Amino acid sequence: MSWLRALKETARSGLKIERQRLEPLVAVRGAAGLALVVGAALVFFGPAVAVSSAFGAFQAAIATFQRSWRPRPVLALVSGATLAVSTFLGYLTGTHIALFVALLTLWTFLAGLAWTLGPTVGIIAASNVAIMLVTVTLPTSVAAAAGHAAMIAVGGIVQALLIVVFPVRRWGAQRDALADALAAEADYARRLRRDPTASFDPAPLMHARSAAAVTPREARRRPAELHGTRGVAERIRPVLASLADPAVGVPAEGPARDRVRELLDAAGTVLDTAAHAVRHGEAVRVPAAAAAALRTPDTGAVLSGPARRAALRLTVLLDDVVATARGAGTSDTSESGHRTRQGLLRLLPGALRAVRGELRPGSPVLRHAIRSSAVVAAGYLLGTVLPFGHGYWAPLTAVMVMRPDFSQTYGRSVARLCGTLVGVAVATAVVQAADPGTYVSAGIAVVCAFGMFLVMRTGYAAASVFISAYVVFLLGTGGEDWAQTVPQRVLLTLLGGLLAMLAYAVYPAWETPRLHHRLADWLLADGRYAAAVLDRYADPADTADVRRALLASRDARIAWREALKKARHEPVRSRVLSRDTADAAGRALAQAGRVAMLIEAHLPEYGSRRDTEPVPAAAALAEVLRHATQDAAEAVRAHRVPDWGSLHEVVDRWGTKETTDAVLRGGAVQLLAALDALAEALAAAPGRRRAADP
């Protein structure tokens, strides 16, 4: 993609307004907390302290809107406390520009490294730097700075208390995650009616798995319908695939296929019903037609072999979904007990190790930290030199728009400029025309904050309008920033955005050159998952390895998809992975993962009567597959085409043995076909060499 087209695409994405479900009650609660803090500070301490406390409450409220499974009060408290520390340290060095720039650079660098721990931590850290640039200008002494820092922390405490006292849709995020997973499986069941080999995006299931992690205290208070439903849903997906697949199930047409379509349609209806019930906390009411379709007694007469087993398992699992969604479940059946989420202090050693792991050449997070710290320092110095006053608008813009990837940085820069242009223009026009007093300005600032909380998830451009207006009115409450004109504020915002964009162009961290490594990671994870499933055919006793390998395969697939999405918008090209090649390779590996999942659906039962006997020969195939995928992953990293000759030999020998399990034999053939499709896709790409080439 050319630079011109990349800029056009990122600008379009930055200005895009997404249709998201608004949460007005949550926005009202955040604005109410802000109003309480500002009102009390104005009455008891004066406008300057009110501005500091307002920034603390505002930042704490923003933190609670981030996509995190941590309790919202914890996010508010951590946000307020870290902002208070940042503000106090910033004031101590604020009178010495060299010291302040050094602290600002260090703080921004650490905020950049915080992206290692996830986007929520990265956004909170970047926001702390941005607000610190404003709040350090308010105190007049060390004692006053301590007071301002304390009031900032109080703002976070007030927001946390409001969340505890006035909860809005408790467990709502967890309900939505589980409902989305069930709805995704319902859609998958319906797509299988038309396309028996349709692929499934595992992201909703992984999202629901993350949401299911709770503390022991939360586990005791979690709604009953959130216990166990996800575990059953995890087991339904491979059963749906095995029921529909013509290679191990029923022919593509005929009475058996008609019965399978009927079962899949009924499964989709039941799963959709359960999703709606979980999302809204209502009772599950399965439509009579779907229940009758699942209970039709002719299943045993029409279906046989693996298809019959899959149909019977599907009926049992759907009954379990309905039962657990009604609150009859007691535990998550995919893992023993509940998934435990560790406290923040226990996570600290692992977080430090993760950050240290990013301190290496070529790390995208390290490059982001270096870029952002250099840009913020340069923006602050330029803003100080320019005769506009309040030069913090430039570094504030830069730190808020910069992200570790190209598309978000450029898209947010355009959105920030456009949003600031509108927000600052309107706010400054109101200030100059109406000359509102302290209390009126504070009230308008609270209204702007409410608007920002309301539209926060619909797009950065819309949120930037309210953020810019909020800052103008809030600083006006304390008597600051009145003299600065609209052109001056917009020019400083433009400067910050341009510095951010220029820094990424000069010191990039492109995802495109790393795509083949992501592909190799996914290939290796798929191979390990398939090998773990094959090992279970030889020895059904060990189930843990299959589960771990499946989760690793899903993580690798999601990482590939996210990397490919980022690379689509980058103004660079891969020498070996064109868009068509990447798409074909992705489809091939998705098919390989689907086949492994299909084989898993027919694993021998352990500890009960076995539907199928163990296959000792599967262990040999698993061992060959591990070595073959390991070599193939290295070949992909070295820009060579994988060679599956060893796998072909084993699978060809299996074709002559009538005693080999039918499902396993058919699955092995399909798996090899998917891997061959991967090799063909890579062989067609320019710059690739065959595995045997020197």
Automatic annotation (TrEMBL):
Membrane topology label: Multi-pass membrane protein
Signal peptide: none
Broad class of the protein's primary localization: membrane
Chain segments annotated as coiled-coil in the UniProt record: none
Top-level taxon in the UniProt lineage: Bacteria
Integral membrane bound transporter domain ranges (all copies): 380-502
Parts of the chain that traverse the membrane: 31-62, 97-116, 123-143, 149-168, 374-393, 413-431, 438-455, 461-478, 490-510
Matching InterPro entries: Memb_transporter_dom
Keyword set, alphabetical order: Cell membrane, Membrane, Transmembrane, Transmembrane helix
UniProt subcellular location: Cell membrane
Recorded family membership: Belongs to the YccS/YhfK family.
Protein name: FUSC family protein
